[in-house]
Sequence to fold (252 residues):
Amino acid sequence: MSEHLFGLRGKRVLVTGGTRGIGRAIAAHIAREGADVIANYAHDEDAATSLQEELAKAGASLQVCRADLFTPEGRQRLVEGVGALPLSGLIHCAATGVHKPLPDLTLRHWDYTFGVNVRSFFDLVKTLQPQFGQGSSIVAVSSDGASHAFPNYGLVGASKGALESLCRHLAIELAAQGVRVNVLSPGTVMTTALDAFPDKEARVQEAMQRSPRGRLTSLEEVAYAAHFLCSDASAGLNGHTLVVDGGQRIRG
Fold:
């Protein structure tokens, strides 16, 4: 019974931003667990190729699709890459942002951040909706910045807040179709995305001090949570934000 509930074999899942960082960890894990994965990426051909080769050696089913989700053409290319077959899940890991104080931010920065982080998710869900069957799971990856303020994180945090709100509304609207929509909100994870922060070292140290475990969240822990949200074992979760940070957030 439990193996069936947590099993991913036979499920077809699209992972945006699925060849680097958190997205890569999620795509690789669920593919190894039996899901047929389409991993989207924007630019890094080497990362995509290495992931595909890694999973092929493991006997897992993963294909990659290069498409820039900021543009309508890119989103259409991804939809075409997914094809007409039914989807069991969508995990939106694709994200970008400009880490600067308010005086240095522009409307162009705003459009790009919200375009990738929120608009592309909305467009993909709307376009692919007919392909989501009963029991399908949609997951959007958010962050602590959706509800807490951090230096140089205003645009990204605002976009994540909008993403979480959108997911709650989608959870209600898609429930009649048998589709669940949830948010996965990791704690601080050591990925190359941290390199964009001008105060990276201070941010990492602060996160470790806040963590009851004295360490950062691991990529594996995030991937396990994504696995759960895609499985039938999470059938009762809809419109929920699942925080995976080892208790870091309860310290403020």
